[in-house]
Amino acid sequence: MRAVFIASIVAFVVSLFGTPFAIRLFIKLKAAQPIRTDAPVGPVPPHEGKRGTPTMGGVVFIVATVIAYVIGHLALMTLPVEQIAQVTPTITALVLLGLFVFCGAVGFIDDLLKVRKRNSGGLSKRGKLMGQLLVGVAFGVVALYYPSTNNETVGSTKVSFIKDIDWLNIGKVGAVILFVFIIIATSNAVNITDGLDGLATGTSVMVLSAFSFIGAWQYQHWCGDWTYAKPGNYCYDVRDPLEIALICAAAAGACVGFLWWNASPARIFMGDTGALGLGGLIGGAALATRTELLLPIIGGLFVILMGSVILQMISYKTTGKRIFRMSPLQHHFELVGWSEVNIVIRFWIVGGLCVALGLGIFYSDFLRTMP
Q: How crowded is the C-beta side of 142, counted as CA atoms within 13 Å?
């Protein structure tokens, strides 16, 4: 597990010290975040002070994660072969890092258009959805159609909660469709969570840390490890769990380094580059660990905020009335009068409780099977 720790530290350091360079560069390039035309208003508009803050900061923690992954693997290669089951880069890493980078690339195009147009429009909803769809399909096919030497794929043809549910076999085509749906849903949910200084970043740290723990735990009790996969042992039938732990730990560390500069008052925003990238990675981690039905619990805050947008839309279109003063929910509380810092901290608490509940369910299942 030394490589996981090294990767998280390297990502943290690269992000912490790399972000100030990105801030200066984006200011020089005049890549400032346009303020939404429907942002909360009042006697003193709370978002007016954010005008001119550089965006696209997600580039920093995406790059930091990739660098940390490479260095983490160099650390693995220093160990004797008999001490480590996964040394060379894997298809799992290709899928997870690919989702992180290419979902981030869709967001980068969106951010770039916003900066050039000097408004919050960016990519059209259809254009953004098409980009997410293409990325999801491409890596969904890789995840389901490229097995390892023991015939294990990154994704599963079975729907999973804590492990695969045997009677919910949806086939490869169905699994790719589910893969795409989860990637699109998760990336958009993280994007909706973004909007207040540090909210999406801090929540992502908790969720990614949870998936790093799950990956590490699965590696310690992995069916692919012949020393552990013996009759009577409870093992996890996943592909490359150490890779999952390493990548999620690196991304969490990179987000912590970025949060130093993204906390209120933010010096830089992650933009859609970071939000869509993080959402893609989180969705991919849930699919790779075979915990996709556990994802809505671990990422409960993302679900709540996405749900507030959906409920607002349904209510307004069916009754002409709004449930909240504004959606997503964090902006409702701004209009109620809560300060930005209070909202972020309280929402972090909710997010942390969701993560704790999800991990508790995951671990309790393991305890339940113990002799």
A: 17
- pTM here is 0.92
pLDDT, tens digit (0-9, with 9 covering 90-100), for 200-245: 999 999 999 999 999 999 998 888 765 665 666 678 889 889 999 9
Mean residue pLDDT of the chain comes to 88
Query: Which residue's entry shows tokens 């900061």?
Result: 57
CB contact at 8 A, 273 and 59: yes
Task: Return the SS3 of 159.
Answer: strand
186 vs 130: CA distance, rounded Å: 15
* Cβ 294 vs Cβ 162: under 8 Å: yes
- Residue pair 255/209 in contact (Cβ under 8 Å)? The answer is no
CA neighbor of 93 nearest in space, from 243, 209, 203, 212: 243
Whether the Cβ atoms of residue 152 and residue 290 lie closer than 8 Å to each other: no
The residues facing 247 across adjacent strands are: none
Q: What is the C-alpha to C-alpha distance for residues 105 and 93, in angstroms, rounded to an integer?
A: 17
Rounded Cα distance between 264 and 202, Å, is 12
CB 284 within 8 A of CB 95: yes
Cis peptide before 328 (omega within 30 of 0): yes
The residues with which 158 forms a beta bridge, in sequence order, are 169
Identify the bridge partners of residue 169 per DSSP, sorted by sequence position: 158
Nearest one of 306, 286, 285, 278 to 102, comparing CA atoms: 278
| Secondary structure class of 32 (helix, strand, coil) | strand
